[in-house]
Amino acid sequence: MIKIENLSIRFDDRYLFNSLSMEVADGEMVCISGGSGSGKSSLLKSLLGFLPIQEGRIVINGKELTADSSESIRREIGWIPQELSLPFEWVGEMVETPFKIKANRKNAFNKQALFEIFKELGLDTILYDKRVSEISGGQRQRIMIAVSAMLNKKIMILDEPTSALDQDSCRMVVNFLDKIRRKGATIIIVSHDRLLASSCDRVIELNCDNR
Which residues on neighbouring strands pair with residue 190, listed in sequence order? Predict the structure, then answer.
């Protein structure tokens, strides 16, 4: 599903990656780990076409990632960053807007289905009627995980999805991600969480050898 070949990305004279190669199979859940500053979040952004590639290439679902193909590739990906800055006042608006985008209109919004996923992720249904400013970052991440699942994205990319959660909430997220992986989704997660990492098919550690 995802193939990275000899990827090199740098800012000024500093390499974030140098000749990095890896593959993620269709339906696999992979955890990316590594120390602070090892380039984990930058790797995710490069998969989304947000960082320019100096050398090498990325192929996602059979398409090479280029300036021309990046937009169509992003339509296949559910992207949940660690810090979500969303231009919405209400949670209901935040949730329903993705279903109104042309690329997602084949998936009709269903509030009851959303609330069923809320339960699986340890979220109270009253959050739907709250202001976005009234909910925590961890709640925002879990809500967008629910939305991505309802949109049937082939690929999900998540940056530290359990960093702000207690153990019980973390376990709910782990179980839900495993469930959608078993349904065929390919998942890449950046995380330091041992429970989450142990639930993945593989853990790939980034270190200074990639620079």
Answer: 32, 159
